[in-house]
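Below is just one:
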Amino acid sequence: MISEKDIEQFSAQCNDIFTQVRRDVIGQNEVVEGTIVAMIAGGNVLLEGVPGVGKTRLVRTLGRVFDLPFARIQFTPDLMPADVTGTNIIVKDEKGNSNFEFQPGPVFSNIILADEINRATPKTQSALLEAMQEHTVTVMGVSRKLAEPFFVLATQNPIEQDGTYPLPEAQMDRFMFKLIVPNPSLDELMQIVNMTQKTMAEVADCACTGEQLLKMRETANQIPVADEVMKYAMTLTSATHPDSECASDAAKKYVRLGASPRAGQALISAAKVKALIKGRYNVAYEDINELAHPVLRHRMKLNFEAVAERISADAIIDMIIGEVGKTIK
């Protein structure tokens, strides 16, 4: 049973993590919080933003703050699956006999930065699928477990689409959150330039070890969810499907395909962490609403009407929250 002391300890630990991350990352509060919530909940994150807004720096900083081994994979069109997962190589022993030996790839780390993931071919992108969901890698018929905790933080540039390969739906679904990294404000830009004039290196200290992170995840899993809140979260997920019994008017008009059951799992797992960060022992409707955008925006396929009217996924989610919210009042 979770105690009040556990909740206080969890909240204090999160404050330490946020404090250290903010020593290196100026602004981007929603992105920082979303990434840390996903890491505690055990999910992967897709960061979308134009070049130079600090996506890679954020991931490097997280490696320092959690004191976890960090590997960066720069995705390019010529990157092969073996470059990600590793491969068997021939080595000779002392007697001159040749043997196959597995040479692990960069995916055998705790935090993986998949930089510009949409630049690699679908074959290479799919090399990450098993690692992201099962936390195992299969090479030449042999499955190997990855060290826990394991996270994939992928980045993609939304503007330059020449020579890119859009992520398949199956892979998109394996990201707990899709976070949009905005351009900094004028004040933030001044702070960034002032900070990087002194040093380009990260200065954050360790605030949480891998073991502590796994313990925080266990604590979050024990948070209760009221039946009404659970039903609301599942209704919200189901309302994104234009042909479901809970279909919202917005989904019927603008959505071709809705969110999968993984969206419902992500909403509840992340909401438990969010409640603990706020020092609460239970999940509230507001936690679900705050997480709806990062959880659902990449899991819905919009139809031609939404594209023609330039209606964004976030705008449709707002409409769905408004419609579903009326049913609980």
Q: What stands out?
A: The radius of gyration is 21 Å. The longest strand covers residues 86-92. The chain has a mean pLDDT of 84. The chain has 15 helices and eleven strands.
